[in-house]
Amino acid sequence: MKMGGLVEQAILDAAQALETRDQELADQVRNNDKTIDQLEELLNEEAARVIALRAPTAVDLRVILSVMRISANLERIGDLAKNLAKRNAILMSMPSINGAASQLRRMARDVQIMLKDALDAYIQRDEALARDVIDRDIDIDQMYNTLFREFLTFMLEDPRNITPCMHLHFIAKNVERMGDHVTSIAEQVVFLVTGDKPEEARQKEDVTSSDARLSTTS
Question: Maximum distance among all alpha carbons in the chain?
Answer without folding.
Answer: 63
